[in-house]
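Protein modeling request. Please complete all fields; requests missing the sequence field cannot be processed.
Requester role: graduate student
Desired output: 3D structure, token encoding
Chains: 1
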Amino acid sequence: MKVKFIHLVAALALASCSSDALVDNRGEKAADEAPIAFSVNKRNITRAESSSLESNYHYNFGVWTYKVKGAGSMQVMDNYLVGYSDGAGKGYDKTSSTTWNSGSGSETDHQSPWFYENLGTAEYLNEDATKGYTKTQTDFMSANANQYLRYWDLAYDKTYFYAYAPYRSAGVTFSKETNIITVAPEAQTAAYDDPTLHEFIYAGASAVNADMKDVQLKFKHLGAQVRLKFCEDIPGYQVKMLDVTTAGTGIQATPAVYDETAKTYTKSKYYTSCGATLDYSNIIAPVATTSHDGATQTGDNLVFTIPSGIVPAKPATGDLVYVESPTVYYAVAQPSGSTTGFTFHVSYQLIAEDNGEVITIHDARVFVPASVADWQPNTRYVYAFKFTSNSTGTTDPDVIIDVTDPTVPAKSSVYPIVFDGATIEDYTNNETSY
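Delivered output (434 residues):
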């Protein structure tokens, strides 16, 4: 994932993943053959734990599979649901799986926390929520009535895997004639924090059948990710962030278009769903093209939880230290050339380090332009704000805060106490005659 760090310094005090008998309906294992297994967590595969599907709240993915010999091919899996279980209630009930294993193993042990056997809707009958998803949670269920364990077919040379997540029983289709997965807009939607049913990712893999190695998939993001972080550079003061209006209102970001000529801000909309085509002409490097036909838009604010505690001050030497909002926004890709930016609304306290005096700054604003808010696939956008000595907020406790107003004041509204033009008054005459 690419990362864009956007540093915004403005007058805000906040500058801002054989034979056909081997795939018959009995799903019976042939002698001396190995099952096709999926692995994302093997000991001999070096990767950061934070990059795994399960650590990013993805507990399933979908896959179309074809075995290939020369120009000929045969389907093995038709939008199979591959599910994860930690064995303790997270993910799917693994009771009926013969390939499930809680731990990591080798690439050829054919066991994994990920499995697809008996996850069809006619087979997956779990009603015990302590074992994993239940059969009534239809958003997490397969499009297939049955899902049989498949085996490596040594009469074929390779097997191709076309994968995506999160799983969809509808809204995601694959054409073997064109090698394209089509993603309907409702299959990828924006969401805060939990991407289980939202953040769309895709991957492709080509396996040599004779190797009989468990399938490793490396997913890419179709959407983007948005994060906020803050530091401060106000000598003599500490900064503590506040909810903009009342408790729980967080940091508000109003979508807007800025007219450079007229210097005006107009409320706008951004996309919260996005369609796409995924071209697997190169199976290991699929290419995504987004589409916004029929996609949904909203003019609602983005809302981020304020970081707790004191915002880190600028150190005397070294790099700036930031505190992040705990909120993560999984955005869908916006059209290229989008003109929508965001006005961020932030309130905070200035706390004097010498005598503890507290001054509250209400609704400071800064505009993040469209040029750095045109979210693109597989990119993380980190907006880094710095609190400085100037602010577009106000210290007036009676101010009416309108978080739907995107207008950023042209001048600072918070001023220091300054002594200027001191004079000495002439003495008063007190003349006495004798």
